[in-house]
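One-letter codes give the sequence; each number marks local geometry. A record appears below:


***
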Amino acid sequence: MFRTSFHTGFMVGYSASDAVRIIRDHGYDAVELNAETLPWAQAHIGPETSASERGELAKLGPFAAISAHNSDFGLKDEARRLAAVDWTLKLIEQAPDYGVSTVHVIPGNDAELESLYASLSAAVEAAEKHGVTLGLEPIVGQRIGTTSGTIDALKRVPGLRVNFDPSHLQIMEHDIPGAIRTLGDHACHVHIKDAIGVPDKWAFVKLGAGDIDFVDMFRVLKEKSFNGYVSVEHESHYFSDDKRGVEQVLAESLAFIRAAEKQAEAG
């Protein structure tokens, strides 16, 4: 079975430690720590998280990854880009304190490719120094949002891996099995999130309500011998009309993964 995780970004109003406990109590193998300020929630961790707080959180793990998304990461504006890189490098440096071995980033808003490649190179260098794997997540509407754009980045930045989020690639390309066959060998972490629509009109929806065939996706992931975490990133409460509460989402998301995985194994 895939090792499961849940992204703390949905855990609004909970402290980091309480969010982790609740996720683990619902049967997830690990937790994905959110360091990004989201439209609906503050980050659970950041460079300012104290050493003692990191140590206490580490006792509650394991943790699948740190979501270190910063919208300025690929900007041409050098001052803002370097500030975003510094923020990211601090999170990478602190990742081992949590027992985290994977950190993933995004291209960012209004990214310029050469600036983005420079940021990725600096982050990969820091990650390798601290025994951490750095993954890039292609994002709908950002400078890298497709399989081909991701492959170009992998070629330009040796050591870079991929946080495979099917929701963005579904909207951009509508071929998740093909994307996995191309990117699967480079995947260090996988998000579980459903989506509908096209680049000009899209939404993230509850698992099973969108256009992604997760049974087929899991089947191809197994063909690629993926052995990392599959982590639920629940955002349909914000991007669509999903009124379910935390307890229901946690239970139903894990059940969805296990059912889809069982079907994938049955062929």
Observations:
- The mean pLDDT is 98.
- The longest strand covers residues 187-192.
- Residues 78-98 form the longest helix (21 residues).
- Residues 12 and 41 are 6 Å apart (CA to CA).
